[in-house]
Amino acid sequence: MNTQKELLTLAAGEQFLYGGQTWIKLDDDENGGTLAITAEIVEDRAFDNDNNNNWSKSTARRYLNPCEGERGFFDQLLDNGAKLEDFIEIVSDLTADNGQR
Fold this sequence. Notes:
Elements: H1 4-9, E1 15-18, E2 21-28, E3 34-38, H2 59-64, H3 73-79
Antiparallel strand pairs: 1-2, 2-3
């Protein structure tokens, strides 16, 4: 399974293989993309090695996302056939309802 057209035929909850990982389809987005999560835990690791609670500076974010000079999960996907253009960048705002960052 490697095309968006094929992903659109899957129902939410169905699994597919991509970039050497098994994924579970969660939903389609309004722009024709697919939201998915890995079927298994990728790696059991700390959120941040220095006990920092800021996602944008965490070691978990650097491991999961492409970061200059570091190799991690995203690079493993690319090494196993995933294509950079298949991913949608998502910006997370983790500000709490009370405005706390």
